[in-house]
Specification:
9 helices; 6-stranded mixed beta sheet; alpha/beta; about 240 residues
């Protein structure tokens, strides 16, 4: 499911459920608040040059930058870069850093570059400290997107049985367990936090539904959907 299609479906489902936050983390990232009265707010969605924090692209870029900075002796890495360096050379099929420059500039493909995040997933699963660290950072920055729109959240969204509903869209959420500690820490430590719980939801069903929502919207129609049946709650946290 593409980010625009998933975002359209996520927004429609959130609105149909009475509002909520749609937090997209796939190749790119974006955060949209939809209140019950139709008002809202947003954070991110500016593309890889200005944002995409917490996305697959962002994590891939973060990993590559740590390797480059370490080898340049510019920055001290948070953890050993050995695994990430080897995975980087293997994924991009180059023998050294200079070979990577073609992928970064001349033939740059955002989706291809973001695909390197899968290697970080494999590293985290194997326990590589740097890969685990990057996923923790992704959890932290995605939580900060939630904090950015929080002042505009309608009070009623805190009062349902799920607490604040956050609809999570995009492949990065498949690695929730690796992002969880950072995500929860940022929300827990937020000054003046006003909500006692939140729930993370994911879309289910065919990506064709997202395309249908986009098509209907383009001609000024809303599809009659059972929005509650289109999501699963995969995590609830009580502070």
């Amino acid at each position: 499911m593409t980010t625009p299609t998933a975002g359209a479906r996520g927004g429609a489902v959130a609105k149909g459920r009475g509002g909520g936050i749609v937090l997209i983390a796939g190749t790119g990232s974006n955060c949209k608040l939809i209140n019950p009265d139709g008002s809202g707010a947003s954070c991110g969605g500016w593309g890889h040059l200005l944002g995409d924090e917490g996305s697959a692209y962002w994590m891939a870029h973060r990993a590559v930058k740590v390797v480059f900075d370490t080898m340049d002796n510019l920055e001290r890495p948070p953890h050993d870069v050995g695994f990430v360096r080897g995975a980087m050379l293997e994924y991009f099929q180059v023998s050294d850093r200079l070979g990577l420059l073609t992928h970064l500039y001349r033939t740059f493909d955002k989706a291809k570059f973001a695909g390197f995040c899968q290697k970080l997933v494999e590293g985290a699963q194997a326990g590589d400290p740097l890969c685990c660290h990057i996923f923790t950072e992704a959890g932290e920055v995605l939580a900060r997107h939630v904090l950015a729109v929080l002042p505009q959240v309608h009070e009623s969204l805190f009062q349902g049985e799920l607490g604040l509903p956050i609809l999570c869209v995009g492949s990065v959420w498949k690695s929730w367990e690796r992002m969880r500690a950072g995500f929860i820490r940022v929300l827990t430590e937020a000054p003046g936090r006003l909500f006692p719980r939140f729930s993370l939801l994911r879309l289910k069903g065919s990506s064709a539904l997202g395309g249908a929502l986009l098509g209907a919207r383009s001609i000024g129609h809303a599809l009659p959907l059972d929005h509650a049946a289109n999501v699963d709650v995969f995590y609830t946290h009580i502070f």
